[in-house]
Design a protein that fits this description.
Elements: E1 8-13, H1 16-32, E2 37-41, H2 44-48, E3 51-53, H3 72-88, E4 93-97, H4 100-112, E5 116-120, H5 132-139, E6 142-145, H6 148-156, E7 161-163, H7 167-171, H8 178-185, E8 193-197, H9 202-222, E9 227-230, H10 235-244, E10 251-252, H11 257-263, E11 266-270, H12 273-280, E12 285-289, H13 293-302, H14 310-315, E13 322-324, H15 330-342, H16 347-359, H17 365-379
Parallel strand pairs: 1-2, 1-4, 2-3, 4-5, 5-6, 6-7, 8-9, 8-11, 9-10, 11-12, 12-13
Length: 384
């Protein structure tokens, strides 16, 4: 199966978790179409895979109902420029990865212009904003979901959907070598390790960074032998965390989340995709999140799920502790972490995480690429 010219893919990922998905999908498409051309928005992995960047990803990494307001005009301007560019130079397919507030509006316009639109990562319509289903039906030719229950939700609403699983479940082995990861980070094999991951967005670091650092200090006071690895998502987040201040003896492992998780006995993480990655590494964790006060007041009246952490959502029960808003204090966090660090072995939790790992192995980017190829054949974009 081939195209008579290079396949042109417009692809847009608004944050680092989407960058992982985008790079995996690009790699799978390149196997099928070696001369494929990609342009849009992505992070370092997508850029390394060959993405032509039309706008910096950092500009889109804003989350929250109120937090987005200062950035609203620049976001609208960016979306309008991308819309105009792709209407004038139509790609064979547009893939919007997550970032629904940005991508869905763009997808509506591009689909109306006759461009095949695929949305990768379902918005959390099963949790809140179910009225979005009407917009999704207008915006997307096909939805790709990471989680199996999401696919069932869309099928009930007659929106074309494919469950693809998560690429991380394919990439992360079922068991990992903790000792080698500790060696790479310069950590002792004998002493316990706490990994601290305060989020990839500036707002997350602002609201969680100091509290996470104080909580880790409290744990170290109770366990003097404890080794702490702090993981800023990138150099900008590292500068923000250094401005807050943390002990010199801690390991600062910028952009090394995977090595940190593999090396750790327990993790302190901001809610998000990183919690799923932590579960795939089979590590006990405390999930914490704090929103702007007004955003939280609005969201708590709209959200219809019992959990915020992906491991708990997937399991349908509380596997790991979650602390939200006013619960996010150094004392509360340390209280939850210390038992995990003192008694790191938890057979039942490992078994639960292993079951989730198997569940999420559904092909990831390969399945997504197969689906996109099939959709283009049905459209007539591909010729035999």
């Amino acid at each position: 199966m081939s195209v008579s010219r290079p396949l042109r893919v417009a692809i847009l990922a608004g944050e680092l978790s989407g960058d992982i998905l985008g790079a995996d999908l690009m790699s799978a498409l390149i196997k099928r179409f070696p001369d494929a051309e990609f342009e849009g928005i992505g992070g370092p992995r997508m850029l390394s895979a060959g993405l032509k960047s039309l706008y910096p990803q950092e500009a889109l990494s804003v989350m929250g109902l109120i937090e987005v307001l200062p950035h609203l005009f620049s976001l609208i301007r960016a979306r309008n420029r991308l819309r105009d560019h792709w209407q004038a130079n139509p790609p064979d397919v547009f893939v919007g990865i997550d970032a629904p507030d940005f991508n869905l509006g763009l997808e509506v316009v591009l689909r109306q212009a006759g461009i095949l639109t695929v949305h990768y990562v379902s918005p959390s319509v099963w949790a809140w904003k179910q009225w979005r289903l009407k917009k999704i039906a207008k915006a997307v030719d096909h939805m790709l979901t990471l989680l199996p229950f999401e696919a069932d939700f869309y099928k009930r609403s007659d929106i074309p959907v494919t469950y693809v699983g998560h690429p991380l479940a394919e990439q992360i082995p079922l068991t990992v070598d903790q000792a080698s990861s500790r060696a790479l980070l310069g950590l002792s094999v004998e002493r316990p390790v706490l990994g601290v991951l305060p989020g990839s967005r500036g707002g997350e670091v602002k609201r969680l960074g100091e509290t996470f650092i104080q909580a880790a200090r409290l744990c170290q006071e109770q366990l003097p032998e404890l080794q702490v690895v702090l993981v800023p998502a990138n150099e900008k987040r590292e500068a923000e965390l250094r401005a807050i201040g943390f002990p010199d003896e801690w390991i600062c492992a910028t952009a090394q989340a995977s090595q940190c998780m593999a090396a750790s006995n327990a993790l302190l993480v901001a809610s998000g995709t990183v919690t799923l990655e932590a579960a795939l590494y089979k590590r006990p964790m405390v999930i914490a999140y704090r929103l702007a006060a007004l955003t939280y007041c609005i969201a708590r009246r709209m959200v219809k799920v019992a959990h915020i952490g992906l491991p708990n959502l997937l399991a349908g029960k509380r596997l790991v502790p979650e602390l939200i808003q006013d619960e996010v204090t150094p004392d509360r966090i340390a209280q939850q972490l210390l038992p995990m660090l003192r008694e790191p072995s938890s057979g039942p939790l490992r078994e639960e995480f292993t079951a989730l790992h198997h569940l999420l192995r559904a092909g990831g980017g390969e399945t997504a690429a197969d689906t996109i190829e099939r959709l283009m054949i049905e459209r007539g974009t591909l010729c035999r």
